[in-house]
Amino acid sequence: MLELFDDDFDAMDLVEGALVLNKAIDQETQIEWAEKELLRMLHEAESYLDGAEDHKERFAAFIHLFYQEWGFCGDHETYFDAANGFIDKVLRTRKGIPVSLGALLLFWGQRLGFPLSPVMFPTQFLLQLQWDNEAPLYLNPFSGEFVSKHTLQAWLIGHQGPLARLNSEHLEVSDNPTIIGRWLALLKNALMREEDYTLALKCTDLALTFVPDDPYEIRDRGFIYQQLDCHQVALSDYQYFIEHCPDDPAADLFKNQVSILQNTPITIH
């Protein structure tokens, strides 16, 4: 298993870190092709923006290029498809989720001189656009539209409940390890939903290199092992979760699973 550390991701562009993550999960990820495609499209963008002098005009042209000319868009029909979290696949299909589309916008946008920064908002990934001496703007990569703080407040209430209040901490610029951690969780959940438990297991193993004793990650690993008929390992992981999170509402459910697994014949792999 490839070991990845926070410092590794801090030293990379977000999209480059995502490609490393993708490759660690699925060896069929086409990193070399994706890197060449990123540079090819950067040169195309430079030519497209040539002649536009006003910085806001250039940015508007860049957004038009990304969503209209290149055809990138949020995947409304199969949002939770794991392919939407793999950069090489997003480059081919031109469909993605906020974090994958946002990482691409960030990669090209920063190289084109636009003051873009990543924000891991509680509901989804955003891009902050901060012109000199102006209030920051927030771009939704899924739609290519700017969102108001009123809309962000509504999203937050939908996510956290009616008492939630938008504050400056929600809009702080995020570091790459934080974003990659959320990205990894999204991929794991998507792969589990698709019942691709072999790749989902790689996600949990990677996550546990960052947080080795996280009982919730160990619980998820137990579920994956159970689906792979590795019942003894699943049993051990469930017991770890119950021991460390006895008051969690799910603890009783996993106690039942432990009872079932203790009475299940051992499968030899």
UniProtKB/TrEMBL annotation:
**Pfam families xrefs:** TPR_9, Transglut_core2
Q: Where is the Protein SirB1 N-terminal domain?
A: 33-184
Please give the PANTHER family that the UniProt record associates with this protein: F-BOX ONLY PROTEIN 21, SI:DKEY-261L7.2
Similarity-based family? Belongs to the UPF0162 family.
From the Swiss-Prot or TrEMBL record, give the protein name: Protein SirB1 N-terminal domain-containing protein
